[in-house]
């Protein structure tokens, strides 16, 4: 009897041990945010109305029609007067920046964000196991990641990823890289450095599809400290629940809607095509379709399933269905929404698709107004606004959504792990009491509205 018992017991114990090791290892594969830091340039780098006027005057090949287009674009952009630009636009070198100018821009951001992050967290550079850097429109040799490693004297065995060309969507791509690395590297610290370099990409031509980028993109960046250490989970700020990436690069219309190019005069810039909104909607729809089952409660999935069946039956029986096409209520799966600040139209479009209120859209709108579109790092400024407003409570879910050239849409869900008290060094701390302002009206119309009535035959200059 005993040999027979052992014959069955030993395999069962072995199986139980393997299962326990598997699930125990899963606990060390989580992805937590310990802290993050957004970059805030000095006040003398603000792109106010008068400076923007000087910038337009320096661009010699702009005519009356281009000025009218720029005025309309800036007024409708949702951007205020306190956003920041690179050094070259203040020194008048935006049309011919040097390699040193471009490196100085990113080094300035690297040193500020990372030094503050290390100081706040108490983690030293030598403790970092994984480094992921994304700067899409600028690449050097040695890499930008190597600049950080050299400056902070990081370890020889650090795992390094230097990502370029991913555009505004690169931030969540970098988080995804970190998440995947955590699955095979236990008890690790990782840092994601996310930003953009405007210095070599400030457009000085007159192609309307390219001068639009000058109205939206601004200087900024963020550094995020992450870990999968089980013993730090209660000290973490956020826990990653899921992350979904959608890439429509195989479709020509999506691929061609946003890319870097030279115009007919050889001026380098970012082309934003008229088909970009359509490409964004397709990528966004596909992304939501995939992430919905992962974040929505079972009750909402059941409701959506029943209404979808009713809608299809109604559609089959009549050319004018009595039941509208059902929409998922994503507010049942997330309390807060970090939206990419790609422009007022982007925020409006995502808000309408998700049926969000003005309260939900406020963090993205205010971030766009105060800091502009800081590319891949914009999500962290939006998160910083929520934190500064004390909106984030323990157990809350935060959904992040961003878009990027390619064309890509990425989204993820974070859970607030602990109560978040007053945070020192929040990029909003000196101005949060003034937000939201009474009016978001852009002063450009008041200062330059007269251009609308000008005639090409008599117009001379700003």
Automatic annotation (TrEMBL):
Pathway: Lipid metabolism; fatty acid biosynthesis. GO terms for biological process: fatty acid biosynthetic process. CDD domains: CHS_like. Residues 336-415 form the Beta-ketoacyl-[acyl-carrier-protein] synthase III C-terminal domain. It is an enzyme of class 2 (transferase). It comes from the Eukaryota. Belongs to the thiolase-like superfamily. Chalcone/stilbene synthases family. This is 3-ketoacyl-CoA synthase. The gene is LOC103497180.
């Amino acid at each position: 009897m005993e040999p027979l018992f052992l014959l069955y017991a030993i395999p069962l114990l072995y199986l139980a041990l393997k299962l326990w090791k598997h699930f125990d290892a899963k606990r060390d594969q989580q992805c937590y945010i310990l802290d993050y830091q957004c970059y805030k340039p000095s006040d003398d780098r603000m792109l106010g109305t008068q400076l923007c006027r000087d910038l337009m005057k320096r661009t010699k090949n702009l005519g009356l029609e281009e000025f009218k287009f720029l005025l309309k674009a800036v007024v409708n952009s949702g951007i205020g007067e306190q956003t920041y630009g690179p050094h070259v636009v203040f020194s008048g070198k935006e049309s011919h920046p040097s390699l040193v100018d471009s490196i100085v821009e990113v080094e300035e951001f690297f040193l500020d964000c990372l030094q503050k992050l290390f100081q706040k967290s108490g983690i030293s550079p030598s403790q970092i196991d994984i480094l992921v850097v994304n700067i899409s429109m600028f690449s050097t040799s040695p890499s930008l990641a190597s600049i950080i490693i050299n400056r902070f004297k990081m370890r020889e065995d650090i795992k390094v990823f230097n990502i370029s060309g991913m555009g505004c969507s690169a931030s969540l791509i970098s988080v995804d890289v970190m998440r995947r690395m955590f699955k095979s590297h236990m008890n690790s610290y990782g840092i994601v450095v996310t930003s953009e370099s405007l210095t070599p990409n400030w457009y000085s031509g007159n192609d309307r599809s390219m001068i639009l980028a000058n109205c939206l993109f601004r200087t900024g960046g963020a550094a995020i400290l992450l870990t999968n250490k089980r013993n730090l989970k209660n000290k973490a700020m956020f826990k990653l629940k899921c992350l979904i990436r959608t890439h429509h690069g195989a479709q020509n219309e999506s691929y061609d809607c946003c890319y870097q190019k030279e115009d007919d005069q050889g001026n380098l810039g970012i082309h934003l095509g008229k088909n970009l909104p359509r490409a964004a909607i397709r990528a966004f729809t596909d992304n939501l379709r995939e992430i919905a089952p992962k974040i929505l409660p079972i009750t909402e999935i059941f409701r959506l399933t029943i209404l979808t069946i009713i809608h299809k039956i109604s559609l089959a029986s009549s050319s004018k269905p009595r039941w509208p096409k059902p929409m998922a209520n994503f507010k049942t799966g997330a309390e807060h929404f970090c939206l990419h600040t790609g422009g007022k139209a982007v925020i409006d479009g995502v808000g309408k698709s998700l049926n969000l209120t003005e309260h939900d859209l406020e963090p993205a709108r205010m971030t766009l107004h105060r800091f502009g579109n800081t590319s891949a790092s914009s999500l962290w400024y939006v998160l910083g606004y929520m934190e500064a407003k004390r909106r984030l409570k323990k157990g809350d879910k935060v959904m992040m959504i961003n878009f990027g050239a390619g064309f890509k849409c990425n989204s993820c869900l974070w859970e607030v792990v602990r109560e978040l008290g007053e945070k020192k060094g929040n990029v909003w701390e000196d101005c949060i009491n003034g937000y939201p302002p009474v009016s978001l009206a852009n002063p450009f119309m008041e200062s330059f509205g007269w251009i609308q009535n000008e005639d090409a035959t008599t117009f001379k200059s700003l």
